[in-house]
Amino acid sequence: MPRHARNRSASGYMHVIVRGIGKQLLFEDEHDYMYYLKKLEQYCMDTEVRVCAFCLMDNHVHLLLKGESEAIVLLMKKIGVSYSWHYNKKYDRVGHLFQDRYKSEAIENESYLLSAFRYILKNPQKAGICNVAEYPWNSFWFYDNPLPYMDVSAVKGVLGNFDQYRQYIEQEENDQGLEYSEARYTDARAKELMMEHLGISSGTVLQNYSKDERNAAIKKLKECGLTERQIVRLTGIGRNIVQSAGKVKQKSSQKNRPCGL
């Protein structure tokens, strides 16, 4: 099917979300988060796109961007290529890292701008990870001292000083924003289980296992209580493979049973 043209924003503001393919993790440790932010700064300066808000979650990224539509497209392409290279090289992985094209939505009024701004910052709190002010990979604390590639002037012109800003962020509202959520184990606990039962700190390691070793490992993760959806997301292994792992042995044993049993 042909791809639909992206919506253009008359205001210049866009809410962008990018996901890991198969919902797998994009960030394994703090160095990955730092690398992504470093490239975000580099390519924002190159393309003259500015960031109003950001939040890096484990398997997706929210960005509130201001710039020309073509420049935003170029920015996201540059980051996608650079970060994919970094991740695949670091974790001995091949293939696509990000899920198809990023999602984007034009923001055309002040009300939606403020709503999307708060929605992005509160993603960790909504996911039950921690309070918005405690999360290390969002832009909450850059309101008064924005980074060189950031521009919060439009939001600051409405919300005022930091105390007023913080009060607004902490309000409970049904904000508008591009959704990305799923019910699952916390990633910290899932990684602990992987280390305890498989001796690995990253699920993507299973991609390098032999078929039998991989299926046995997936079966063990299921027995530990991880859902198939979470295993797909943490390992980057296809859903069909994850679903079938652990069932082959059962079929084989049934085939070899004597007639009548």
Structure description:
The protein is of the alpha+beta class and 261 residues long. The chain folds into two domains: 13-170, Alpha-Beta Plaits; 187-251. 46% of the residues lie in helices and 10% in strands. It is built from eleven helices and four strands; from the N terminus they run E-H-E-E-H-E-H-H-H-H-H-H-H-H-H. It has a four-stranded antiparallel beta sheet, with helices on both faces. Helix 1 runs antiparallel to helix 2.
- Bulk shape: elongated
CATH topology of the largest domain: Alpha-Beta Plaits
SS summary, helix count: 11
Q: Write out the CATH superfamily name of the largest domain.
A: Transposase IS200-like
**How many β-strand stretches?**
4
Distance between the termini: 50 Å
Q: Biggest sheet, open or closed, and with what strands and sense?
A: 4 strands, antiparallel
Mean pLDDT: 84
What is the name of the CATH class of the largest domain? Alpha Beta
Radius of gyration: 21 Å
| Uncertain stretches of 5 or more adjacent residues | 1-6, 248-261
Total domain count: 2
Level-2 CATH architecture of the largest domain: 2-Layer Sandwich
